[in-house]
Amino acid sequence: MSMNPTSKIRPTGATASMGRSGFPQVVSATGGEITIKTGASEAGFNPLDLLYASLSACLAMSARIAAGQLGVSDRLTGVAVRVTGEKASEGLSRIARFAIDMEITGDFDTAIRDEIARLAEAEICTVSNTVNGGAEFVLAVRAPHQDSSAS
């Protein structure tokens, strides 16, 4: 597969930083910033909200891609995806079940709407494929870099 020399690859990744108190500040590889909030009534995102947000956004974009693959994108008028989850009652702290509600609007019958959703969730969305696939974690722990010339 040849790469288009004018196409750009978007940098990905995020870094969360925090001190002894307060909440993490998360910065994306492209400079986007989010401050994590954990209070029950505090507006903002907590870490699980970010997981749900990633999955919902990926599925919405993937549904649009799926409509294109099926040749029906001209009939798609909108996609809304709501993701929630249930924490496991036993064992490690984790989400045991994701609840995904995908609303696909447009001039489609049930079979096409179902196929758009299936393709989006099972084949196209990188986030759902990753969550379902058991990705390997490679953890590196390090002390902060110290400048030896500062002595």
TrEMBL record:
Q: Does the keyword Nucleotide-binding apply?
A: yes
What the entry lists under Pfam families is as follows: OsmC (PF02566)
Alphabetic keyword roster: ATP-binding, Nucleotide-binding
Indicate whether Signal appears among the record's keywords. no
Domain of life where this protein originates: Bacteria
**Disordered: where is this region?**
1-22
Which Gene Ontology MF annotations are present?
Answer: ATP binding
Q: Which InterPro entries match?
A: KH_dom-like_a/b, OsmC/Ohr_fam, OsmC/Ohrsf
Report what the protein is called.
Answer: ABC transporter ATP-binding protein
Q: Which organism is it from?
A: Aureimonas endophytica
